[in-house]
């Protein structure tokens, strides 16, 4: 990226579904491209409670995205409701460390504040140290660490 490239942050639309779904697949490769496309359509249909922003770089198209939702249930570490929850944040590797994630989070923060949120939240896998560092660099403070458990019931749960 040279200094003449300009970054534009814009709300995702139906016209950007393919590019958005491709970026999602880069972040979450275990999900099929078809499922990503269905999820992007669902986010767009849930007007008011969810949003996605795309980072467009001149000459390169979308190079990153942020997805967010309003959560009205309890969000770990938060004191208010609703909370703007950062569901996903991704910038393609060649474009990282250039302030794109910061700009995407700023757009999310502005959206959440306009929706009445006084807090933002997010999460990261315990093993994803890079994501944890990025969250801290973007102004998020760690609130707690959680290990989730599962126990099947019925015939699945018996030995």
Question: What features would you describe in this structure?
Answer:
The protein is an alpha+beta fold. It has one domain (7-157): Gcn5-related N-acetyltransferase (GNAT) (Aminopeptidase, 3-Layer(aba) Sandwich), CATH 3.40.630. The chain is built from 4 helices and 5 strands. Strands 1-2-3-4-5 form a 5-stranded mixed sheet, with helices on both faces. The protein is globular, with a radius of gyration of 17 Å. 26% of the residues are buried.
Task: List the defining traits of the structure above.
159 residues, alpha+beta, Aminopeptidase, 5-stranded mixed beta sheet, 5 strands
Count of separate structural domains: 1
> Could you tell me the number of beta strands?
5
Q: What order do the strands of the largest sheet run in, or round the barrel if closed?
A: 1-2-3-4-5
Predict the CATH topology: Aminopeptidase
Q: What average pLDDT do the residues reach?
A: 91
Which percent bin holds the helix content? 25-40%
CATH structural class: Alpha Beta
Silhouette: globular
> How far do the termini sit from each other?
57 Å
Q: Tally the helices: what do you get?
A: 4
Main sheet makeup? 5 strands, mixed
Which sequence of SSEs, written as H and E, runs from N to C? EHHEEEHEH
The CATH architecture? 3-Layer(aba) Sandwich
Strand content: 15-25%
Assign the CATH superfamily: Gcn5-related N-acetyltransferase (GNAT)
User: What is the rounded Rg?
Assistant: 17 Å
Would you tell me the structural class of the helices and strands? alpha+beta
Low-confidence stretches: none
């Amino acid at each position: 990226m040279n200094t003449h490239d300009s970054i534009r942050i814009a709300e995702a639309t139906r016209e950007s579904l393919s590019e958005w779904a491709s970026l999602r697949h880069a972040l979450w490769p275990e999900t099929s491209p078809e499922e990503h496309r269905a999820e992007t359509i669902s986010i767009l249909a849930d007007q008011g409670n969810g949003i996605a922003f795309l980072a467009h770089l001149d000459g390169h198209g979308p190079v990153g995205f942020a997805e967010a939702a309003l959560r009205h249930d309890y969000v770990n570490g938060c004191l208010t409701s609703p909370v703007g929850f950062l569901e996903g944040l991704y910038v393609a590797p060649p474009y990282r460390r250039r302030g794109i994630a910061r700009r995407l989070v700023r757009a999310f923060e502005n959206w959440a504040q306009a929706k009445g949120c006084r807090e933002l939240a997010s999460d990261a896998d315990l093993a994803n140290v890079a994501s944890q560092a990025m969250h801290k660099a973007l102004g998020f403070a760690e609130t707690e660490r959680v290990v989730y458990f599962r126990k099947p019931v019925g015939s699945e749960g018996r030995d």
